[in-house]
Amino acid sequence: MSLFSKPKYSTVVVKKKDIPKGMWTKCPISGEIVFNQELEENQMVVPKSGYHFPIGARQRITALFDEGTFEEIDASIRSADPLKFVDSQKYPDRIKKYEKESGLTEAVVCGTGKIHGIPVSVAVMDFRFCGGAMGSAVGEKITRAIEIALKNKTPCLIFSASGGARMQEGIFSLMQMAKTSAALGRLAEAKLPYISILTHPTMGGVTASFAVLGDINIAEPGALIGFAGARVIKDTVKQTLPPGFQTAEFLQKHGLIDQIVSRLDMRDRLRDILQALYLRKLPTAKK
Protein backbone atom coordinates (compact mmCIF):
# COMPACT_ATOMS: atom_id res chain seq x y z
CA MET A 1 0.00 0.00 0.00
CA SER A 2 1.23 3.50 -0.87
CA LEU A 3 2.40 5.72 1.96
CA PHE A 4 -0.27 8.26 1.00
CA SER A 5 -3.18 5.92 0.26
CA LYS A 6 -6.19 6.01 2.58
CA PRO A 7 -6.64 2.85 4.69
CA LYS A 8 -9.85 0.96 4.07
CA TYR A 9 -10.54 0.53 7.76
CA SER A 10 -9.69 2.87 10.60
CA THR A 11 -7.44 1.50 13.29
CA VAL A 12 -8.51 4.20 15.76
CA VAL A 13 -11.05 3.08 18.34
CA VAL A 14 -13.35 5.87 19.57
CA LYS A 15 -15.28 5.12 22.69
CA LYS A 16 -18.70 6.73 22.47
CA LYS A 17 -20.25 8.16 25.60
CA ASP A 18 -23.02 5.91 26.77
CA ILE A 19 -26.48 7.50 26.80
CA PRO A 20 -28.72 5.84 29.39
CA LYS A 21 -31.81 4.24 27.87
CA GLY A 22 -35.19 5.70 28.72
CA MET A 23 -33.94 9.28 29.09
CA TRP A 24 -35.06 10.63 25.71
CA THR A 25 -38.18 10.43 23.54
CA LYS A 26 -38.50 11.23 19.83
CA CYS A 27 -41.44 13.33 18.68
CA PRO A 28 -43.25 11.43 15.89
CA ILE A 29 -44.25 14.72 14.22
CA SER A 30 -41.09 16.81 14.18
CA GLY A 31 -38.44 14.20 14.95
CA GLU A 32 -37.32 16.36 17.87
CA ILE A 33 -35.54 14.53 20.70
CA VAL A 34 -36.99 15.53 24.05
CA PHE A 35 -35.56 14.87 27.50
CA ASN A 36 -38.10 12.65 29.30
CA GLN A 37 -38.08 14.68 32.49
CA GLU A 38 -38.91 17.81 30.49
CA LEU A 39 -41.68 15.92 28.70
CA GLU A 40 -43.21 14.67 31.95
CA GLU A 41 -43.10 18.14 33.49
CA ASN A 42 -44.94 19.41 30.40
CA GLN A 43 -47.76 16.85 30.83
CA MET A 44 -46.34 14.67 28.03
CA VAL A 45 -46.77 17.43 25.45
CA VAL A 46 -43.77 18.07 23.15
CA PRO A 47 -42.85 21.77 23.74
CA LYS A 48 -42.18 22.77 20.11
CA SER A 49 -44.51 20.62 18.00
CA GLY A 50 -47.34 20.39 20.53
CA TYR A 51 -47.68 16.64 19.97
CA HIS A 52 -49.66 14.98 22.78
CA PHE A 53 -48.27 11.67 24.02
CA PRO A 54 -50.68 9.46 26.01
CA ILE A 55 -50.92 10.27 29.70
CA GLY A 56 -52.01 8.14 32.66
CA ALA A 57 -55.20 8.85 34.60
CA ARG A 58 -53.46 9.74 37.85
CA GLN A 59 -50.96 12.03 36.13
CA ARG A 60 -53.83 13.82 34.43
CA ILE A 61 -55.73 14.18 37.70
CA THR A 62 -52.69 15.66 39.44
CA ALA A 63 -52.34 18.31 36.73
CA LEU A 64 -56.05 19.08 36.63
CA PHE A 65 -57.23 19.43 40.23
CA ASP A 66 -56.47 21.91 42.97
CA GLU A 67 -53.82 20.39 45.20
CA GLY A 68 -55.18 18.11 47.91
CA THR A 69 -58.82 18.28 46.76
CA PHE A 70 -59.20 15.09 44.72
CA GLU A 71 -60.77 12.12 46.52
CA GLU A 72 -61.05 8.83 44.68
CA ILE A 73 -64.30 6.89 44.87
CA ASP A 74 -65.29 3.30 44.08
CA ALA A 75 -61.69 2.10 43.72
CA SER A 76 -62.74 -1.36 44.89
CA ILE A 77 -65.02 -2.03 41.89
CA ARG A 78 -63.33 -4.59 39.63
CA SER A 79 -64.11 -6.68 36.58
CA ALA A 80 -65.91 -10.00 36.94
CA ASP A 81 -65.79 -12.84 34.41
CA PRO A 82 -69.47 -13.39 33.53
CA LEU A 83 -68.77 -15.34 30.33
CA LYS A 84 -65.80 -17.37 31.62
CA PHE A 85 -64.00 -16.02 28.58
CA VAL A 86 -60.88 -17.79 27.34
CA ASP A 87 -58.81 -17.14 24.22
CA SER A 88 -55.05 -17.57 24.49
CA GLN A 89 -55.41 -16.71 28.17
CA LYS A 90 -58.10 -16.70 30.83
CA TYR A 91 -59.79 -13.33 31.28
CA PRO A 92 -58.97 -13.03 35.04
CA ASP A 93 -55.31 -13.65 34.19
CA ARG A 94 -55.44 -10.82 31.65
CA ILE A 95 -56.94 -8.52 34.27
CA LYS A 96 -54.10 -9.30 36.68
CA LYS A 97 -51.62 -8.49 33.91
CA TYR A 98 -53.31 -5.15 33.21
CA GLU A 99 -53.30 -4.33 36.92
CA LYS A 100 -49.59 -5.02 37.18
CA GLU A 101 -48.68 -3.07 34.04
CA SER A 102 -50.81 0.00 34.78
CA GLY A 103 -50.85 0.14 38.56
CA LEU A 104 -54.64 0.51 38.36
CA THR A 105 -57.54 -1.73 39.35
CA GLU A 106 -59.63 -0.78 36.29
CA ALA A 107 -59.55 1.28 33.10
CA VAL A 108 -61.08 4.34 34.77
CA VAL A 109 -60.34 6.37 37.90
CA CYS A 110 -63.29 8.26 39.41
CA GLY A 111 -63.58 10.81 42.16
CA THR A 112 -64.51 14.30 43.27
CA GLY A 113 -62.39 17.41 43.59
CA LYS A 114 -62.08 21.08 42.74
CA ILE A 115 -60.78 22.89 39.65
CA HIS A 116 -59.96 26.50 40.51
CA GLY A 117 -62.24 26.08 43.50
CA ILE A 118 -65.16 24.69 41.48
CA PRO A 119 -66.42 21.30 42.74
CA VAL A 120 -66.83 18.55 40.14
CA SER A 121 -67.29 14.82 39.81
CA VAL A 122 -64.89 13.22 37.36
CA ALA A 123 -64.13 9.95 35.56
CA VAL A 124 -60.74 9.64 33.85
CA MET A 125 -60.10 6.68 31.57
CA ASP A 126 -56.64 5.14 31.16
CA PHE A 127 -55.70 3.41 27.90
CA ARG A 128 -52.92 1.40 29.58
CA PHE A 129 -55.51 -0.87 31.22
CA CYS A 130 -56.91 -3.18 28.52
CA GLY A 131 -56.77 -0.39 25.94
CA GLY A 132 -59.29 1.54 28.03
CA ALA A 133 -61.96 -0.99 27.02
CA MET A 134 -65.33 -0.51 28.72
CA GLY A 135 -66.60 -3.50 30.65
CA SER A 136 -69.15 -3.81 33.45
CA ALA A 137 -66.81 -2.33 36.07
CA VAL A 138 -65.93 0.70 33.92
CA GLY A 139 -69.60 1.35 33.13
CA GLU A 140 -70.57 1.02 36.79
CA LYS A 141 -67.84 3.40 37.96
CA ILE A 142 -68.71 6.02 35.34
CA THR A 143 -72.42 5.73 36.14
CA ARG A 144 -71.71 6.23 39.83
CA ALA A 145 -69.55 9.28 39.06
CA ILE A 146 -72.50 10.77 37.18
CA GLU A 147 -74.87 9.92 40.05
CA ILE A 148 -72.53 11.57 42.57
CA ALA A 149 -72.62 14.73 40.46
CA LEU A 150 -76.40 14.50 40.56
CA LYS A 151 -76.43 13.96 44.32
CA ASN A 152 -73.98 16.79 45.06
CA LYS A 153 -75.48 19.06 42.37
CA THR A 154 -72.11 19.58 40.71
CA PRO A 155 -70.89 19.33 37.10
CA CYS A 156 -69.58 16.03 35.76
CA LEU A 157 -66.45 15.63 33.64
CA ILE A 158 -65.47 12.48 31.75
CA PHE A 159 -62.08 12.06 30.04
CA SER A 160 -62.38 9.30 27.45
CA ALA A 161 -59.50 7.16 26.18
CA SER A 162 -60.72 3.82 24.91
CA GLY A 163 -60.71 1.27 22.14
CA GLY A 164 -64.41 0.63 22.79
CA ALA A 165 -66.46 -2.07 24.49
CA ARG A 166 -64.64 -4.98 26.13
CA MET A 167 -65.25 -8.10 24.05
CA GLN A 168 -64.45 -10.49 26.91
CA GLU A 169 -67.70 -9.41 28.60
CA GLY A 170 -69.94 -9.51 25.52
CA ILE A 171 -73.45 -8.09 26.00
CA PHE A 172 -72.61 -7.12 29.59
CA SER A 173 -70.15 -4.64 28.14
CA LEU A 174 -72.55 -3.31 25.50
CA MET A 175 -75.17 -2.72 28.20
CA GLN A 176 -72.91 -0.04 29.68
CA MET A 177 -73.56 2.19 26.66
CA ALA A 178 -77.23 2.48 27.56
CA LYS A 179 -76.55 2.56 31.29
CA THR A 180 -74.13 5.50 31.19
CA SER A 181 -76.28 7.37 28.65
CA ALA A 182 -79.36 6.99 30.84
CA ALA A 183 -77.46 8.39 33.83
CA LEU A 184 -76.41 11.39 31.74
CA GLY A 185 -80.07 11.86 30.80
CA ARG A 186 -80.94 12.22 34.48
CA LEU A 187 -78.08 14.70 34.91
CA ALA A 188 -79.44 16.76 32.00
CA GLU A 189 -82.94 16.73 33.52
CA ALA A 190 -81.42 18.24 36.68
CA LYS A 191 -79.82 20.94 34.49
CA LEU A 192 -76.31 20.07 35.67
CA PRO A 193 -73.44 20.45 33.17
CA TYR A 194 -71.67 17.51 31.61
CA ILE A 195 -68.40 18.21 29.83
CA SER A 196 -66.89 15.42 27.74
CA ILE A 197 -63.17 15.48 26.97
CA LEU A 198 -62.09 13.10 24.20
CA THR A 199 -58.43 12.09 24.13
CA HIS A 200 -56.41 9.81 21.85
CA PRO A 201 -57.90 7.38 21.02
CA THR A 202 -61.66 7.39 21.69
CA MET A 203 -63.35 4.67 19.66
CA GLY A 204 -66.14 2.10 19.49
CA GLY A 205 -68.91 1.90 22.07
CA VAL A 206 -67.42 4.70 24.15
CA THR A 207 -67.72 7.11 21.23
CA ALA A 208 -71.21 5.77 20.51
CA SER A 209 -72.38 6.58 24.04
CA PHE A 210 -71.19 8.97 26.75
CA ALA A 211 -68.13 10.40 24.94
CA VAL A 212 -70.17 12.54 22.51
CA LEU A 213 -73.12 13.40 24.76
CA GLY A 214 -71.51 16.37 26.48
CA ASP A 215 -73.14 19.76 26.76
CA ILE A 216 -69.72 20.69 25.42
CA ASN A 217 -67.47 18.15 23.68
CA ILE A 218 -63.77 18.99 23.91
CA ALA A 219 -60.94 17.08 22.23
CA GLU A 220 -57.19 17.13 22.61
CA PRO A 221 -55.24 18.04 19.44
CA GLY A 222 -54.79 15.19 16.98
CA ALA A 223 -56.99 12.75 18.91
CA LEU A 224 -58.39 9.82 16.91
CA ILE A 225 -62.15 9.71 17.45
CA GLY A 226 -64.65 7.38 15.79
CA PHE A 227 -66.74 4.23 15.98
CA ALA A 228 -65.24 1.74 13.53
CA GLY A 229 -61.66 2.01 12.31
CA ALA A 230 -60.88 3.84 9.08
CA ARG A 231 -59.85 0.64 7.30
CA VAL A 232 -63.14 -1.08 8.17
CA ILE A 233 -65.14 1.92 6.96
CA LYS A 234 -63.15 2.17 3.73
CA ASP A 235 -63.68 -1.53 2.99
CA THR A 236 -67.41 -1.17 3.73
CA VAL A 237 -68.23 1.97 1.74
CA LYS A 238 -65.68 1.23 -1.01
CA GLN A 239 -64.61 4.87 -1.10
CA THR A 240 -61.42 6.78 -0.39
CA LEU A 241 -61.77 8.58 2.93
CA PRO A 242 -60.99 12.30 3.14
CA PRO A 243 -57.64 13.47 4.59
CA GLY A 244 -57.60 13.65 8.38
CA PHE A 245 -60.71 11.49 8.65
CA GLN A 246 -61.61 10.76 12.32
CA THR A 247 -59.15 13.27 13.75
CA ALA A 248 -60.33 15.83 16.30
CA GLU A 249 -59.69 18.61 13.79
CA PHE A 250 -61.79 16.92 11.08
CA LEU A 251 -64.65 16.31 13.52
CA GLN A 252 -64.60 19.87 14.81
CA LYS A 253 -64.91 21.10 11.22
CA HIS A 254 -67.95 18.84 10.76
CA GLY A 255 -69.65 19.80 14.02
CA LEU A 256 -69.14 16.85 16.38
CA ILE A 257 -66.44 18.53 18.48
CA ASP A 258 -67.01 21.99 19.96
CA GLN A 259 -63.46 22.87 20.96
CA ILE A 260 -59.94 21.53 20.58
CA VAL A 261 -57.90 22.35 23.67
CA SER A 262 -54.26 21.61 24.46
CA ARG A 263 -53.68 19.58 27.58
CA LEU A 264 -51.59 22.48 28.88
CA ASP A 265 -54.61 24.79 28.68
CA MET A 266 -57.25 22.28 29.80
CA ARG A 267 -57.43 23.25 33.48
CA ASP A 268 -57.99 26.95 32.76
CA ARG A 269 -60.38 26.26 29.88
CA LEU A 270 -62.52 24.02 32.08
CA ARG A 271 -62.61 26.77 34.70
CA ASP A 272 -63.94 29.23 32.10
CA ILE A 273 -66.59 26.79 30.86
CA LEU A 274 -67.68 25.81 34.36
CA GLN A 275 -68.01 29.44 35.37
CA ALA A 276 -70.28 30.03 32.40
CA LEU A 277 -72.38 26.87 32.68
CA TYR A 278 -72.47 26.34 36.43
CA LEU A 279 -71.37 29.14 38.76
CA ARG A 280 -73.44 31.87 37.13
CA LYS A 281 -76.60 29.81 37.62
CA LEU A 282 -76.03 29.24 41.33
CA PRO A 283 -77.68 31.42 43.97
CA THR A 284 -75.20 34.04 45.24
CA ALA A 285 -75.02 32.41 48.66
CA LYS A 286 -73.68 29.16 47.18
CA LYS A 287 -70.86 30.64 45.10
UniProtKB/TrEMBL annotation:
Compartments it resides in: Cytoplasm
EC number(s) from the headed UniProt entry: 2.1.3.15
UniProtKB keywords: ATP-binding, Cytoplasm, Fatty acid biosynthesis, Fatty acid metabolism, Ligase, Lipid biosynthesis, Lipid metabolism, Nucleotide-binding, Transferase
Reaction equation(s) it catalyzes: N(6)-carboxybiotinyl-L-lysyl-[protein] + acetyl-CoA = N(6)-biotinyl-L-lysyl-[protein] + malonyl-CoA
GO molecular function: acetyl-CoA carboxylase activity; ATP binding; carboxyl- or carbamoyltransferase activity
UniProt enzyme class: transferase
Entry-linked NCBIfam families: accD (TIGR00515)
Subunit structure of this chain's protein: Acetyl-CoA carboxylase is a heterohexamer composed of biotin carboxyl carrier protein (AccB), biotin carboxylase (AccC) and two subunits each of ACCase subunit alpha (AccA) and ACCase subunit beta (AccD).
Reported function: Component of the acetyl coenzyme A carboxylase (ACC) complex. Biotin carboxylase (BC) catalyzes the carboxylation of biotin on its carrier protein (BCCP) and then the CO(2) group is transferred by the transcarboxylase to acetyl-CoA to form malonyl-CoA.
Protein name: Acetyl-coenzyme A carboxylase carboxyl transferase subunit beta
